[in-house]
Design a protein that fits this description.
By secondary structure, the protein is mostly helical. Helices cover 68% and strands 0% of the residues. The longest helix is centred in the last third of the chain and has 20 residues. The radius of gyration is 18 Å and the shape is globular. It starts with 5 loop residues before the first helix and ends with a helix.
Length: 280
């Protein structure tokens, strides 16, 4: 059994956040360009202050998530990492609870199968504290209303409008499947973690409409951006030296930001995939 201490998990989480920031991710914040009234320093600070809390021993999942978001809110005062924390906390919980002869996926399913109403209450409070863009009112299980169901049920209801909730309802299939696989393939192809992280991001953006874009701009535009991503991803996968694509990716980055389009969900799932790769 490959166990990890809370300190090691904090480092793995922080490393995943930093690697994602080093990757050129068109439309999102990265080391090559800020955007959406946020800078890379906001994200670096968020990763730093949330790492210790999200990996602390002896916490429930809800406590882990709320603590990380509260620390982030106090440090930067904006929503930089709600999706990241929602996705990474269950992976960390699963690693902390990992038993002998058990895979990370098996431990993760146990975590997801044992979520409570208290977890749902704390996650709802974290979401309200973050006030993510595009958060409207819903008819069932609105996070601003008293919570009476467990977190699993809350996420199952939200899964069709939120790809992060979909991970909870489907065993993190995107993360442990496409995300880890695409990273391994790209790393083998180029031996460069940052390029491999870009490949993961483009992989998600080209295979499913980004639900952050859907919430802010509607499904038609999200589908159009997915089509743009498919062209970029095909060229990126085929190129021998990804550095030669940097100008084209930066031009697309500028175009997306000029249209106020941020594929935030794809970026969040990318971080979770990078973390998962380091934990399996």
């Amino acid at each position: 059994m490959n166990t990890m201490s809370p300190k090691q998990l904090a480092e793995a989480y922080h490393d995943a956040c930093m690697l994602e920031l080093k990757a050129l991710k068109p439309g999102n914040v990265h080391m090559f360009a800020d955007g959406h009234r946020m800078t890379i320093h906001h994200f670096m600070k968020s990763a730093e202050v949330s790492a210790g809390v999200i990996s602390q021993a002896g916490l429930t999942l809800g406590e882990r998530i709320f603590g990380a978001i509260e620390a982030t809110h106090q440090a930067v005062g904006m929503n930089t990492n709600l999706g990241i924390v929602l996705l990474c906390a269950p992976l960390i919980q699963a690693k902390l609870q990992l038993q002998a002869n058990q895979s990370l996926s098996e431990s993760l399913h146990q975590v997801l199968d044992n979520l409570t109403v208290d977890d749902a209450v704390l996650v709802s409070q974290a979401i309200v504290l973050s006030s993510p863009a595009g958060l409207g009112s819903v008819s069932q299980y609105d996070v601003r209303q008293p919570v009476e169901v467990d977190l699993s049920q809350m996420m199952r209801v939200a899964q069709h409008s939120d790809r992060i909730a979909w991970q909870y309802a489907n065993g993190f299939l995107d993360v442990l499947g496409l995300g880890v696989q695409r990273y391994e393939e790209a790393l083998a192809q180029w031996s460069n973690p940052a390029y491999a992280a870009t490949a993961v991001y483009l992989g998600f953006l080209s295979t499913q409409p980004d639900t952050h874009i859907i919430r802010k701009h509607g499904s038609r535009l999200a589908m159009a951006i997915m089509a743009e991503a498919q062209i970029m991803e095909a060229e990126f996968k085929a190129i021998e030296n990804p550095k030669l694509m940097q100008r084209k990716l930066m031009d697309w980055d500028a175009s997306l930001k000029a249209r106020d389009i941020n594929p935030g969900t794809s970026a969040d799932i990318t971080v979770a995939s990078l973390l998962a790769k380091s934990l399996v």
